[in-house]
């Protein structure tokens, strides 16, 4: 069962949730050492770590997946699955095409032109987690990261994903890559893969940005490399908040809470409702549905450690609490979900109505599922085409413009104690 909290108990529950953000200094030092060794030893160290943790017979000379193997992978999966993958990719492309941006310039009279250049990042590294030694291929991760990068115009996409014990990559990953026209795939994982992308090795190209989720080692590696390479975000454990009224279906809500809880033991599932009756029904449904899950133990641990049902006075208060929690996923199970859209301020993605469970967004509808977690939706956004753009401002000024304004510019510069700045403007007025 999920613990039930009254609204007045919210501060103590939030203190519990804060523990999910705790930094592990020992792990950080371990990952820092891994990154340093990748930079110093390159291929040799990457080979050693891959042999130790993933594939005992791994050789760095086989690190890149041959293009022919990627193309042949389509023959290894059912035709109906290929059709589903194609449709999902098409949906994601349609959504992200709306996010394209263009360079612009705007004359300010005859004396000044201002503008902005929109240019794609040239080389991007994409991390795809192995998923139980390759038995649960995270194809959606590949789609959600590669599609916006392609639409932005990224020239080179390098995929890294850990090999199985036998040294293979799941054919579903390779087939998805083929459908996306992504052919630079390297069989390495964890923090040493992130380091290889950031620094480059003899066999693995250095990139300008690294995106994609991973385990705690991958997340810490990305965090430590900020400033050396671009990253998408520091993603924490997954989470869902459901706002529901007394008319909501308890079986739907229980299923959706469990869908998040099965991710890992640190995942967080929360229901906010003014109905104590619904809260009791949801807990009963969780008991029933939990027993039928393959990942029962993980979900049970997640719900008991981090899950919560928050009882509030009304739906206004429920939305207030949801905005405060700023969840990765926000589901709204109320009679008219559209009416509260203007009131939602902080969420990675909003799922409206009882027939829009979070997996609709995870896999198929089109919006990106790489979203801000642990309340960072208060100040950040999910992965998008914009993630892969750089914006460069430009200015052109005429002789008349600098003549009119050099004294003002010089005055502002001298107020900051920057005499050379002032003279740089003034010299053009002599």
Overall outline? globular
CATH domain class name of the largest domain: Alpha Beta
Main β-sheet description: 6 strands, parallel
**Which structural category fits the helices and strands?**
alpha/beta
Descriptive notes:
The structure is a single chain. With 430 residues, the protein is α/β, with parallel strands linked by helices. It folds into three domains: 4-21 and 236-378, Nitrogenase molybdenum iron protein domain (Rossmann fold); 42-231, Rossmann fold (3-Layer(aba) Sandwich), CATH 3.40.50; 398-429, no CATH class. It is 43% helix and 16% strand. The chain is built from 16 helices and 14 strands. Helix 6 (139-152) links the parallel strand 4 and strand 5. Helix 5 (79-97) crosses helix 6 (139-152), helix 10 crosses helix 11 (276-290) and helix 10 crosses helix 12 (296-306). The longest helix is centred in the N-terminal third of the chain and has 19 residues, at 79-97. The model has no long low-confidence stretch (mean pLDDT 96).
Can you lay out the helices and strands and say which pair or pack?
Blueprint: E1 4-6, H1 10-18, H2 25-41, H3 43-53, H4 67-72, H5 79-97, E2 104-107, E3 112-120, E4 123-127, H6 139-152, E5 156-160, H7 171-179, E6 184-186, H8 190-199, E7 209-211, H9 216-224, E8 230-231, E9 239-244, H10 250-261, E10 268-273, H11 276-290, H12 296-306, E11 308-311, H13 315-325, E12 329-333, E13 349-352, H14 358-363, E14 389-397, H15 399-415, H16 419-426
Parallel strand pairs: 1-11, 4-5, 4-7, 5-6, 7-8, 9-10, 9-12, 10-11, 12-13
Antiparallel strand pairs: 2-3, 3-14
